[in-house]
Every structure is written in C-alpha cells, then in structure tokens.
Design a protein that fits this description.
single chain; 264 residues; alpha+beta; 8-stranded antiparallel sheet; 7-stranded mixed sheet
Length: 264
C-alpha cells in the first residue's frame, strides 16, 4: 500500500494562462498517485501577504502531511532561496519572500533550501521546474533533509497583530473577501480576553461608523445594515448584510478598526 498524498496549489496566475494546467500535468506525470487540490489561483499579483492569509486559514483543514505549493512571488530576490518546510504536520514549498513566517502559528520544525539541490540556474517557471519535483519526492516519502540543505536564515516576517492599550484593541483590515466583507486581525480569543464581557463599541474608519454588538449570524441584521461577526477563522469581520461593506465604507487592507470596551 502506498499512501496517496495531497498536493495543494496556490498561485497568482488567474485562469487565463497555461500555468495551472502545465503544473498539474507535470505533477500527474511525475507522481500519478497524488491528489491535486486547488486552493486559490486568484491571489493578487506578487502579494505574499494575501497568499499567506489564504493558505493560513485553509491548510489546517487538510489531512496531515499534505504538501502545499505556494507559487506566489516565487522568483527569489538576488541572494534569496527556494524553501521547503515542515510545519504543523504539513509541508510547504515557497520562495524565501516572507510567506513562511506570514503563515503564523508555530515556527517550522525544519526548513531547507532547494536551490542548490535542484538547479544552479532554475528557469522562470519555478513551480514547474523546482516545486513540482520537490512535491513529488515528498509525496513518495523522501525526508525533507534529502531535498536540500538546512536553511540557517530565512525571511521571518510575521502577520500584522492587533495592539492592546488599556481597554482598547486597535486592529487592521487584513483581507477583503469576495463578498466585500472586511476581515480584521482581531481574533475572537483576543476580543474575549480583553473585553471580559463588557459592553463595547467597534469603530470603523476612525469614528465614521460604529457597531456595538456582535452577530452570531449575518441574517440577524436587516438587509443593508452594518454588522460585526466572528467568521469561521475566528476573526472579527465587518459586513453589510446583502451589501458591499468594503466599497460603501471605503475600506481597504490596513484600514483601522478599533474596539473600545466600556469601563466598569
């Protein structure tokens, strides 16, 4: 019996090019037992933070030992490397562009650089020439250490965190979803810990808009009304029921969201 590994694909390639099909063809030729799953191919071009947000909130739902190819911003800067990492019982293949740290959570147990092992001068389609081969070797049971050399250093960016001052949480919009809901970096755990059950006001865009309750479901609010809810990722989300919150409130990534808890 040979285990059937899952290989996920995340890229900024959209749907109009041959890149996704070429990579899938290469993977199916090299490791036909693998199951290939698309996570997202509409990442904003070269946007490591967007890629990390999508993968960070989806990878843990996959079985252990899933191999995640993150083909965003994958041509490393001069001096940069291509990385393979074992983290949280999953494998990740990406460039040394901050994505590995931006995935958040525990530090990787092991990180290796792929570049020297695979090709002194990899071509421009790195996912095809390097990541596909590495993913298939992992799916066949190769230990991570056989794929390259230990990465002594790599870009350890971390996700932007909300800050706490007395009874106020200051956070930011970190993602606008396809419904134009604004997802923030304020977690339910942080909200509960700081708030201790007190009444609160959530201010959006300075003090232009305010919400003072948290919905359990979107439909608790009338259509067209502003609401706040904790989404399935446990993050505070600002939405307009059946409406376009980001567009109507002029919210973008990095827009400020502030929670003020009442004293006493």
């Amino acid at each position: 019996y040979r285990p059937m590994h899952i290989i996920t694909l995340t890229s900024d390639w959209n749907e109009n090019d041959y890149y996704v099909a070429a990579l899938k063809g290469k993977l199916l030729s090299a490791c036909p037992d693998a199951r290939i799953v698309d996570i997202n191919h509409r990442i904003k071009s070269f946007n490591s933070s967007h890629a990390a947000f999508i993968v960070r909130n989806s990878y843990s739902h996959f079985p252990e030992n899933t191999i995640h190819i993150i083909a965003v911003n994958s041509e490393p800067a001069p001096g940069g490397e291509l990385l393979a990492a074992r983290k949280d019982k999953h494998y990740f293949l990406c460039a040394d562009n901050g994505i590995l740290g931006l995935l958040g959570g525990p530090d990787p147990e092991e990180v290796v650089t792929l570049t020297d092992q695979y090709n002194e001068d990899p071509d421009t389609f790195i996912a095809l020439s390097v990541f596909a081969r590495a993913a298939c070797e992992l799916s066949r049971g190769a230990p991570l250490g056989k794929l390259g050399t230990p990465a002594e250093t790599y870009d350890r960016q971390t996700p932007l965190r909300a800050t706490i001052e007395d009874t106020t949480i200051s956070g930011s919009v970190i993602h606008i979803d396809s419904y134009q809901n604004a997802i923030t970096n304020i977690s339910q755990e942080l909200f509960t810990r700081v708030g201790e059950g007190k009444a609160f006001e959530i201010y959006i865009q300075s003090k232009h808009y305010m919400v003072d309750r948290i919905n359990k479901r979107y439909n608790e609010t009338e259509p067209g009304e502003l609401l706040a809810i904790f989404n399935s990722a446990g993050l505070l989300e600002i939405a307009i029921r059946n409406g376009n919150a980001a567009g109507l409130l002029k919210l973008t990534t990095n827009s400020t969201i502030r929670v003020e808890f009442n004293e006493g």
